[in-house]
């Protein structure tokens, strides 16, 4: 079937998905696809990355719907005011991801990729999860500011709900149904280097040619 390898990573916020995706891509020399896809999608849709970020891995919210309704009532619509629906962005990102995999091996983060590439012969789907405290600690490091207490917990819960709704809507599957993934890892007890070693080992066992 497909000649190029594709590694997809589903993840809870703060569980290490982006960090591990970059590490795996670097180790195998694969293309890394995450937020970069917004840049390409923005070009294809002739829109700003900021507007696309509103619905990236999210269902169109009530706020977005209201914003669009208000904008459509304006006599002149500036491009920077337009907010796309989740479906528009999902379709565009899916096309971009499939084209990328046709061009070469990839590591893809989120965006329903584990489901989209489920029938690819050289595909491995990974899901990373972790306890709340280490997730908040990792996010603090990424954002460079405190993510603690009830505010941090609510942020994590909100992001998990949005990712779950997005995945469930566009795949008809459950985001946290771990049967949907080939390899599931709780990253809580491990260092980043250990997580990388575990994932690389699994991928090499699956694909000895790597």
Instruction: List the secondary-structure elements in sequence, H or E.
Output: EHEHHHHEHEHHEH
Please name the CATH topology: Rossmann fold
Count of β-strands: 5
Whole-number tally of structural domains: 1
CATH level 4 superfamily: P-loop containing nucleotide triphosphate hydrolases
With helices defined by DSSP (H or I, 4 residues minimum), what is the helix count? 9
- Supply Rg: 18 Å
Outline: globular
Fraction of residues in β-strands: 5-15%
Strand neighbour order, sheet with most strands:
2-3-1-4-5
Structural class: alpha/beta
Largest sheet: 5 strands, parallel
The share of residues in helices is: 40-55%
Compact summary:
52% of the residues lie in helices and 11% in strands. The protein is of the alpha/beta class and 210 residues long. The chain has one domain (6-205): 3-Layer(aba) Sandwich (Rossmann fold).
Please write out the topology.
Blueprint: E1 6-11, H1 17-28, E2 31-33, H2 36-45, H3 49-53, H4 62-72, H5 86-103, E3 106-109, H6 113-116, E4 123-129, H7 132-143, H8 149-171, E5 183-186, H9 192-206
Parallel strand pairs: 1-3, 1-4, 2-3, 4-5
Helix pairs in contact: 1-9, 2-5
GO molecular function, one term: kinase activity
Pfam family, one: Cytidylate_kin2
InterPro entries: P-loop_NTPase (IPR027417)
């Amino acid at each position: 079937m497909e000649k190029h390898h594709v590694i997809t990573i589903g993840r809870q916020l703060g569980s290490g998905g982006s960090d591990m995706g970059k590490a795996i891509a670097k180790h195998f020399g694969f293309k890394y696809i995450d937020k970069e896809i917004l840049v390409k999608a923005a070009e294809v849709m002739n829109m700003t990355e900021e507007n696309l970020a509103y619905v990236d891995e999210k269902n169109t919210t009530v706020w977005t719907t209201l914003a669009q309704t208000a904008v459509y009532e304006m006599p002149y619509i500036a491009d920077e005011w337009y907010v796309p629906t989740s479906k528009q962005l999902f379709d565009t990102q899916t096309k971009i991801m499939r084209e990328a995999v046709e061009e070469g091996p990839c590591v893809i983060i989120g965006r329903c990729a584990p489901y989209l590439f489920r029938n690819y012969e050289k595909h491995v789907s990974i899901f990373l999860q972790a306890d709340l405290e280490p997730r908040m600690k990792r996010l603090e490091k990424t954002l460079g500011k405190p993510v603690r207490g009830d505010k941090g917990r609510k942020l994590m819960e909100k992001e998990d709900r949005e990712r779950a709704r997005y995945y469930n809507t566009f795949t008809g599957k459950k985001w946290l149904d771990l049967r949907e993934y080939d390899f599931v890892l709780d990253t809580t007890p491990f260092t980043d280097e250990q997580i990388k070693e575990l994932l690389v080992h699994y991928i090499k066992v699956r694909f000895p040619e790597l």
